[in-house]
Amino acid sequence: MENFHGTTILAVRHKNKLAVAGDGQVTLGASVVKHQARKVRRIYNNKIIVGFAGATADALNLSERLETKLEQYNGNLTRSAVELAKDWRTDKYLRRLEAMMIAADETRLFLISGNGDVIEPDEGFTAIGSGGIAAQAAAAALIMHADLDAREIAEEAMKIAASICIYTNNSVTIEEL
């Protein structure tokens, strides 16, 4: 059985704005099976943006669980992310989920993984997925050397990632706060 591959999710906080971008490509083996998947969404009354890489059902399950934690902790993203990561790492069922997530609100930005990681990047940007390293490097360069806002940086960095990573395309969804 072949595995689905690929996704690039990039979150950029710059000039008091946040943009989270995700490409739309879904690849099975050597074939692209979908071009416009939506891997970036708003949750918790549109106050939180999440982007996910990995198995879609697993990622949606984690997104729903994060939203439940947000409701439980009155929208506190930090506490909710930590509690989700704790459950994800220790629960026998959740440990098998194959996904990573970026979650952000107006003030916080986290990369959350099944290893129990809840990482808040120092620079205000982070990326996950097969093209994540290319998108993150491009975002870093654009922040340092171009006068662009968060959305423009995300758009350009995703174009660069798509030109390098065969599992990333130019059909990009962007959500902003």
UniProtKB/TrEMBL annotation:
EC number in record: 3.4.25.2
Keywords: Allosteric enzyme, Cytoplasm, Hydrolase, Metal-binding, Protease, Sodium, Threonine protease
Any single Gene Ontology cellular-component annotation: proteasome core complex
Principal location listed in the UniProt entry: cytoplasm
Regulation: Allosterically activated by HslU binding.
Subunit composition and interactions: A double ring-shaped homohexamer of HslV is capped on each side by a ring-shaped HslU homohexamer. The assembly of the HslU/HslV complex is dependent on binding of ATP.
Protein's UniProt name: ATP-dependent protease subunit HslV
Gene: hslV
